[in-house]
Amino acid sequence: MKKLLLTIIFCCSSFFAVAQSGYEITIHLKNCPDSLAYLTYYQFDKTLVKDTCASIKNGKIVFTGKKKLDKGIYSLVSQKKAIYFDFFVDDNHQKLEIKTEASQNIGKELTALNAPLQNDFFRYVQFINDQNKAFIAYKATLSMGTKKDTLALNAKQKEIEGIIQSYEEKFLAEHKGTYIGDVVNLKVDKLLKNIPKASNGRPDSIAVYKYYKNHYWDNVDFADDGTMRNPFFNGKLKKYFESVVVKHPDSVSVEIDKIMNKAKRGTMLYKLLLAHFTYTYETTKIMGFDKVFVHMSDAYFKTGKADGIYDDGEIVQKIMKRADKLRPLLVGNQALDLYMIKAEDFGKMKAMGFEDAKNSEEMTKVFYKNAEQVSKMFVKLSDVKADYTILIFWDVDCGHCQKEIPVLMDEYNKLIKDKKDVKVYSVYMQHEGEKYQKFIADNKLPWINVYDGAHYNNAIEKYDVYSTPVIYILDKNKAIRAKRIDANQVKLIIDSFEKEKQLKS
Question: Burial letters for 460-480: b for 16+ Cβ neighbours within 10 Å, e otherwise?
């Protein structure tokens, strides 16, 4: 009998443990117009669907599952994909019963029947919404046609910001150690209160900035996946790298490493952060910031710290290969040398048989047969003597090139007029010599006009020229100073380099 009793107790305990491991979210939505609803959650920069309730009866919406929900901010989403309201889930809030009504008062009516902490969160959201409405209502009373109105609006904004700041500070103090406290902590900016005076008697803006940067991530747990499952994390991360960190690739790399060192390898947050930084700086349009992408490859992918980030191992290999290709092309590096043939020598190269070779084997034979003569015809990039060399890769038949070449010509003429020591090393990417020579003559291009007549350089790979035109600016030592720029930026950039030199002298 005793053994049977123990068996029953064990079975009941096991059943209870299984039951507790799942989730059950019950929502009573008065006047609900939907026949189905979605349970979604925030994750980094996305909103993902977790569950669907396909049978709503009398406004009762139920989401259930056998496994616990991950810690995060979740949303009830309508049939038309509109968010009704947000709520939070952590280990202590897997069984929730919430009621409200589908109306303009949805936030004010929002109540959790079995979770006081959830109601604190609802009141917080409602308070913020009320303050925003108050500001909008005040703004509507102003014509904004006078300086007085502008000053009044600014004063009102500061007043409301102060009210919100005081409320949030109190909220954080009362909810320290809770998940919802961590979420609000992400939203709140850490500002220096007692601002010292600078030597000029004004508020010390440097001290303000340093405090803000140094305390930006206070109490943010990068080892916890729950940190990214809310609507604030992605915006805070984006703001940090766009507005707080010094805009220099080395500074960005340092800050990325600081964050990645705080994150825990193997967690979803670690994986998404690493994927985010890698993709962001692989595809960046900001000149010079591909250096950060190369850093990501060297510091994480080549060291094994990125293992498990992608299911497809080929992606990792592609990332490292791409970084290795970009490495010699980083701003500041010595430009890779080119051995090109003058456009006017196209006939000679054709006579040698270079244009008739059908494959690489035939091309190699032609090259070695004429190696001595060809080597004397090479126009090397490294031999160009100028304070600035504009290196452009382009194609006569490229529509964009046909627009950019005249613009570059104008920029070049302006620089020459300003007595700048500038030369253009113009590389035609095809082998239709007659067409190239005609374009040069028709447009009177006074440049070093060359092409890869000996098929020796593979500029596509060497200079990452997968579309044309591509423009680089090199200094007198042939170091890359600017790259992948538009033709109309050339003079502006060279002028800025000249001003920089004058300041240093």
Answer: eeebbbeebbbbbbbbeebeb
Phi, psi of 21 (to 5 degrees): -80, -15
CA distance 418 to 107: 66
What is the mean pLDDT of the segment spanning 93-107?
93
Please answer whether residues 380 and 339 qualify as being in contact, where contact means their C-beta atoms are separated by less than 8 angstroms.
Answer: yes
Claim: this prediction has a pTM higher than 0.85:
yes
- Residue 14 — pLDDT band, cuts 50, 70, 90? very low
Element (H, E) at 380: strand 378-380
**Backbone phi, then psi, for 309, in 5-degree steps?**
-70, -40
Instruction: Give the pLDDT confidence of 269-319 residue by residue, as tens digits.
Output: 999 999 999 999 999 999 999 999 999 999 999 999 998 888 888 999 999
CA angle, 49 then 124 then 89, to 5°: 35
Sheet with 46-53: strands ordered across:
46-53, 37-43, 72-77, 83-89
Is the Cβ–Cβ distance between 264 and 223 less than 8 Å?
A: yes
Whole-angstrom Cα distance, residue 103 to residue 1?
59
Task: For residues 125 and 68, give the distance between their C-alpha atoms in angstroms, rounded to a whole number.
Answer: 25
d(CA 483, CA 460) in angstroms, rounded, equals 15
Burial class (CB in 10 A: 0-12, 13-18, 19+), 91: exposed
